[in-house]
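ok, trying the design again with the full structure, not the truncated one.
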């Protein structure tokens, strides 16, 4: 029996090409699913490069292979200041953006795994709130938020489109 060794760490510029492939595949999946999310040229290689250079990009490794990606930003998302609704808390928070799992790794529960790693990361930073948003038609992510105990808080706007905003306060 082989054991799986997961690691969650900051992405490096050397990871860029493989992460971009993961994101491109995720963009195509959103399109195939009929979702409008990520169909407007975002995210793109420049966004990813900025994530990495700013220290926002994180990878999930399985036995040293990149199987997932996300961007984590501490206490900063201007769109979240104008929420139509109300956040659960006003404390420090981690913002989650651009969650994507490698095409050949789907169905293994890795989206849940990456979300668990994000919670662990927040706790390591002594941050007890995680905020995120997704399109109204990104049903896999909406289901994941519900399954993991995130609360719907209202709507935020990105590039002119309303998105559902969620928060989870960690105990």
């Amino acid at each position: 029996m082989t054991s799986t060794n997961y690691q969650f760490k900051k992405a490096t510029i050397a990871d860029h090409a493989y992460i971009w492939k993961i994101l491109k595949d995720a963009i195509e999946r959103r399109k195939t699913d009929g979702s409008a999310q990520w169909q407007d040229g975002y995210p793109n290689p420049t966004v990813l490069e900025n994530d990495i250079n700013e220290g926002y990009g994180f990878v999930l490794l399985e036995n040293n292979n990149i199987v997932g990606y996300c961007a984590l930003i501490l206490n900063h998302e201007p769109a979240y200041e104008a929420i139509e609704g109300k956040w659960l808390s006003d404390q420090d928070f981690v913002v989650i953006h651009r969650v994507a799992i490698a095409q050949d790794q789907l169905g293994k529960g890795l989206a849940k795994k990456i979300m668990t790693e994000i919670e662990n990361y927040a706790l390591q930073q002594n941050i007890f709130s995680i905020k995120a948003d997704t399109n109204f038609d990104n049903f896999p992510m909406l289901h994941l938020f519900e399954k993991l105990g995130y609360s719907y808080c209202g709507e935020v706007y990105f590039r002119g489109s309303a998105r559902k905003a969620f928060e989870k306060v960690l105990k």
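Keeping the full-length input from now on. The longest helix spans residues 16-32.
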